[in-house]
Design brief:
alpha/beta; 468 residues; 13 helices; four-stranded mixed β-sheet
């Protein structure tokens, strides 16, 4: 697919001529895409110098045109000005422009008026200062369930209006337009605006919260092929977050495959942002474990708390019940409903805990997906919302969460990998729970998880080197 970027002074007649030629190409060629950037004349010189410096280009006139590759966040291939673009189009597509001078001037004047109106709207929007939330892979089922939940009480308490930005790289533009319209139809009081994007042109601009749902890799792909796609996509995401997102952005990685690796790639490519702002959602796996414990003890899932998940969230992990509690359990010893009891003291079948329980948890998501014939979008959404509420101070400071975070050597876990471990939240920050017991069996399991994560990271590193 050919994707071109056309930028120029809003009152430039040659920008207007290039614009109309590009529109003609986009209508005529199914695989031709154009992104237009109209710059006010007073800002043009500074903008051009900055763009050329960033990309190591030399160009002095309006317009400037370059070509990019789809799914790439890096610099493109400079074509030049209008004459260079026209020559390229004539050579590749056999199409030329016969636009009159009178029409060029008329369109240029209209462009300038439009640019000035847009600036007035931008000034008005800047006074509102909305919270910018970006969701990637927005056309998947999880996003459809997630969006209304983001606006429920307690998720973003006392937050300003929310600007919701939906991103699905290479997705269907008509479907994206439909999703945007459907969200607007919800008439959510806190919703300021909705935008839809199928490329990376504006990705993560001003982002305060980023929720990454990408899992569009084929189950039958070779490991190297999957690693290449993940490395390419998330390396680009990280670079764009570094350049465009708010300095206090929070990025939550969710999904079923290579989630710790994805978070590692974001961290490596957004070095100026505090590493604590990048986390992997382990809550879905934690809740799946709680559901099986609740079934075993004949209580509600909500009556089980403080289950810990260690390791590779989308790979080898270990469910740890050393701090797990159960409420409302009708056992030999009963107490008030608010009085918790240790799960390990209430479950007497050690064989079930050591073999069947782990197997049930590992198979849970696949079992649900096979019965419903779709991904486990509802439970994934619930996990994301739980993390957002915790980050926004709407959970008890005593509650234990499992979270994939960058290891700095805690519990003898190797540094530099994203590893799930127990945390508590307070004032919008997480802190690692230190008073846990790491026995030999658990330590051995954690080491296996760490080795798997290091292998994934090494494979991605080799893949990135082969790309560059």
């Amino acid at each position: 697919m050919a994707k071109f970027v056309l930028a120029g002074k809003a009152d430039c007649p040659y920008y207007a001529k290039a614009e109309l030629l590009a529109d003609l190409l986009e209508r005529s060629l199914p695989n031709f895409r154009i992104h237009k950037i109209s710059i006010h004349p007073r800002d043009w010189k500074e903008w051009l110098e900055s763009t050329c410096k960033t990309n190591a280009w030399k160009h002095e006139q309006s317009p400037i045109i370059w070509r990019e590759l789809i799914d790439r966040g890096g610099k493109g291939m400079l074509l030049g000005g209008f004459s260079d673009f026209l020559e390229h189009v004539q050579g590749y597509y056999g199409i030329t422009s016969d636009m009159s001078t009178e029409l060029m001037l008329k369109v240029a004047a209209e462009n300038l008026r439009t640019r000035e109106l847009c600036e007035e709207e931008e000034v008005h929007s800047s006074l509102i200062a909305p919270l910018h939330i970006w969701i990637s892979s927005a056309l998947n089922q999880t996003c459809y369930i997630l969006v209304p939940m983001l606006f429920t009480p307690g998720v973003f308490p006392e937050a300003p209006p929310i600007s919701l930005h939906l991103l699905d790289v290479g997705g269907d533009e008509e479907e994206m337009q439909g999703l945007r319209m459907e969200i607007e139809d919800l008439a959510l009081p806190q919703l300021h605006q909705v935008t839809g994007h199928t490329d990376l042109d504006q990705a993560f601009q001003q982002a305060h919260v980023i929720i990454l749902l990408d899992d569009s890799w084929s189950d039958g792909e070779k490991e190297e092929s999957t690693a290449r796609k993940v490395a390419d996509r998330y390396r680009g995401y990280g670079q764009l977050i570094e350049q465009r997102a708010h300095e206090n952005v929070v990025a939550i990685v969710a999904g079923d495959s290579l989630v710790s690796l994805k978070c590692s790639l974001l961290l490596e490519n957004a070095p100026s942002i505090d590493s604590s702002r990048f986390v992997v959602m382990a809550t879905q796996l934690e809740y799946e474990a709680r559901a099986h414990i609740a079934k075993k003890l004949n209580v509600k899932t909500a009556d089980v708390s403080d289950v810990i998940v260690w390791g590779n969230i989308s790979g080898i992990s270990q469910v740890d019940l050393q701090r797990a509690k159960v409420f409302n359990y009708q056992g030999a010893i009963c107490g008030p409903s608010h009085l918790p009891q240790p799960v390990l003291e209430m479950i007497y079948e050690r064989k079930w805990l050591e073999s069947e329980f782990e197997s049930l948890v590992n198979l849970q998501r696949g079992t649900v997906a096979s019965k419903t014939q779709r991904p486990t979008a509802i439970s994934a959404t619930n996990g994301i919302i739980a993390v957002l509420k915790a980050l926004n101070g709407k959970t008890s400071t005593e509650e234990v969460f499992s979270l994939g975070i960058l290891s700095t050597g805690q519990f003898n876990i190797p540094t530099g990998i994203v590893f799930s471990m127990p945390v508590r939240f307070g004032n919008g920050q997480w802190s690692v729970l230190s008073d846990v017991t790491i026995g030999d069996k658990l330590m051995a399991r954690m080491q296996i998880s760490a080795d798997q994560l290091k292998t994934e990271k090494d494979l991605a590193t080799r893949t990135i080197k082969s790309i560059t």
